[in-house]
Amino acid sequence: MLYRSITGQTPPEANERMAGDDLRPAADFGVSKGLSDALGQALAIAPEARPQSVQDLQARLRGDRPLPSAPISRAPSAPDSPLPPAADVPMPGPTPRRRSWLVLVVLVPLLAVGVWYVNERPTPGPNPIGLSAETRAKTAPKPPPRLALEPELVAIRGGCFQMGSPESEPFRFDSERQHRVCVDEFAIGKYEVTQAQWQAVMGSNPSHFSGCADCPVETVSWNDVQEYIEKLNARTGKHYRLPTEAQWEYAARAGTQTPFWSGDCIHTDQANYDGSDDYNGCGAKTSVYKKKTLPAGSLKANAWGLYDVAGNVFEWTCSLYDKDYRGAESEYASKNDAGSRSLRSGSWGAGPRRVRAAYRPRNSPYYRSDYIGFRLAQDSLQCFEFFPLRGARG
């Protein structure tokens, strides 16, 4: 019964297996090798091939070598006893067939307990019955639904990339030294935080371009954003934060090494920037200049599904600005850290040169402007189970 419940197959009767054991290993049906071996030993034809004790069964379930059977000791007969030694007295006992059934009656419940132990124990380890990652994901408990005031996140698979720009990139700045950086898995906002989301948490809207609930909130300082994050985390019980400068560029590039996520050129159909200027004669000059923010997600997303990572508003990062890139790009600044904070993305008022993926201006954590907004990030593991992972390890 246990073999059938695990494999879905009915084993042949014992008397049919006497001439030749044709019991298929449970591993043929997707069961782990350890459990398959334990089932095969419990259903062995020869009694001596079966586990002889509870400790032996437990050892086999754990994958340890079977314990040696202890010799059966007999109490010596008293020298003056009028009775013959116990070994000389023929005592009736169970026949081999009855002994086989007795062993099975004892072992089947023990195996059931063993299966429960292997599957239900809280310690991490390999999946004992061969369930796929997809099956485990489907049966995993779901997190609470995302509230309207929370950002929609895209989970990004960690990897390494060349941060900054090569010296051959047109119109680059000296602060864009190209160097290799690696990031761990994280999640980042699919959109910039909107005025409606800010209003829902803070109770007010500081934006210059107000009256557009889906437009990015702007005119917020780095310190203002920290206060917003504290309140949002208190409301949701989650751990939102700003992305590091390295995480931001890694996600914005989406695997590219070109000046823009779109390639060697950018167009006002792809980003909200000042199209009055060109970039290296590539056709970025379209004469389209909207002179204001647009609703988040109005234009095209990059290859990893992120919107407005070029233009619309500059975005605060949580990293201190270091012109020479000495590790600050991968670190989190606190309120007490002196110095400017790095900004990314470009804005509605910037030319194409300043919406490149490597462009990195800076400003004081107290500074506010209608050019500046932000998007959020998170490194909680719950993100990676329920959002599609983007990117590839490098």
How would you describe this structure in keywords?
394 residues, alpha+beta, paralog of FGE (formylglycine-generating enzyme), 2 domains, five-stranded mixed β-sheet, 9 helices, 11 strands, 24% helix, elongated
Task: Give a short overview.
The chain is an alpha+beta fold and 394 residues long. The chain has nine helices and eleven strands. The strands form three sheets. The protein has a five-stranded mixed beta sheet.
> Which topology of the largest domain does CATH recognise?
paralog of FGE (formylglycine-generating enzyme)
Overall morphology: elongated
The total tally of domains equals: 2
- Compute the number of helices: 9
* Cα radius of gyration in angstroms: 34 Å
Secondary structure: helix percent: 10-25%
What does this entry look like structurally?
- With 394 residues, the chain is an alpha+beta fold.
- It folds into two domains: 2-67 and 93-136, no CATH class; 144-394, paralog of FGE (formylglycine-generating enzyme) (Alpha-Beta Complex).
- The chain contains nine helices and eleven strands.
- The protein has a five-stranded mixed β-sheet with strand order 5-10-4-1-11.
- The longest helix is centred in the N-terminal third of the chain and has 25 residues, at 96-120.
- It starts with a helix and ends with a strand.
- Residues 67-91, 115-131 and 381-388 have low confidence and may be disordered.
Task: Break the fold down into its secondary structure elements and pairings.
Blueprint: H1 2-7, H2 33-42, H3 54-62, H4 96-120, H5 133-139, E1 153-156, E2 159-163, E3 179-183, E4 186-189, H6 195-202, H7 222-236, E5 240-241, H8 245-253, E6 314-320, E7 341-344, E8 362-363, E9 372-373, E10 377-378, H9 382-386, E11 389-390
Parallel strand pairs: 1-11, 6-9
Antiparallel strand pairs: 1-4, 2-3, 4-10, 5-10, 6-7, 7-8
Helix pairs in contact: 2-3, 2-4, 3-4
